[in-house]
What we know:
globular; single chain; alpha+beta; 3-stranded antiparallel sheet; 3 strands
Amino acid sequence: xxxxxxxxxxxxxxxxxxxxxxxxxxxxxLVNSGQFHVVHVGKRIKISREVFFNWLNGEKxxx
Length: 63
């Protein structure tokens, strides 16, 4: 079982894959779906840990 504090403050797509148990393609589709805020840093995609876990828990808002 995952806990929010096991992950860094800024998640990578690989973290999303691990948390949800999904493949790389599905993880990229999810982070590009607009369901939660993402930040593009060059070619890298970062997601706030708090924003992601709030989304995962069905909470409104972005932290």
